[in-house]
Amino acid sequence: MAQIPEELKNEIKQLIAEGSKIEAIKKVRASFGLGLKEAKEFVDILERDIAEEDRTVIPQRRISQRVSTQQGCVGKFVPGIFILVGIVFLVITVVIISADQRIVNNGYLTEGEVVGLLESDGAYAPVVNYEFDGEIFTYESATYSNPSSFALGETVPLFLDPDNPYDILIDTFSERWLLPVILGGMGLVFFVIGMVVLFVLNFKGV
């Protein structure tokens, strides 16, 4: 049989795919002048070709859908991590502020003196002496800053819990609010980024 034009071949395949095998045979006979047997054999060959193509295309389609699903899961996992980290930072911020407020509510305002500066990687934290019930206590801050927020000999306001004189809060911005501002800001940034990315992915239908 002579080379079949691609357009005619596609038309015959379309008839076969639609279940019109008899029409496909008639078209082959009319186009090439073949007998019924030869036309049927030719259509059977095309039918096998179609089946083979379907067996190849369907797994590829499934693989593509599986990859797309996996990418969608990974895509939503990343903003989920950002949201979770943001929530953790925000919860820690609330815990710190609550603990500080407890000292403020239960304690009273007094004064202490900066008697030393702890140094770590170029940052400094104050060492403060304060008096309670005729006894001198020493408090070493865990909040470091560069440059130092305190000077040796400086008098600083602080809240002291009489039920636990070791539990104090230096009433300055760096000691009371610096860490919550940093953690809260980071938590808010992570949370907002995660929510925005998740919204965009959902909007795109990923």
Please tag this protein with its features.
alpha+beta; 5 strands; 2 domains; 206 residues; five-stranded antiparallel β-sheet; rod-shaped
Overview of the molecule:
With 206 residues, the chain is α+β, with helices and mostly antiparallel strands. It folds into two domains: 6-57, no CATH class; 71-204, no CATH class. The protein has helices at residues 6-17, 21-32, 36-106, 173-176, 178-204, and strands at residues 108-120, 123-132, 135-140, 155-161, 164-170. The chain has a five-stranded antiparallel β-sheet with strand order 3-2-1-4-5, covered by helices on one side.
End-to-end separation: 49 Å
Number of domains: 2
Q: Report the β-strand fraction as a percent range.
A: 15-25%
Numbering strands along the chain, what is their spatial order in the largest sheet? 3-2-1-4-5
Number of DSSP helical runs: 5
Order of helices and strands: HHHEEEEEHH
Nearest-integer average pLDDT: 85
Q: Percentage of helical residues?
A: 55-70%
- Count of β-strands: 5
Low-confidence stretches: none
State the secondary-structure class.
alpha+beta
What is the oligomer described by this structure?
A: single chain
Q: How would the global form be characterised?
A: rod-shaped
Radius of gyration: 39 Å
Give the biggest beta sheet: 5 strands, antiparallel
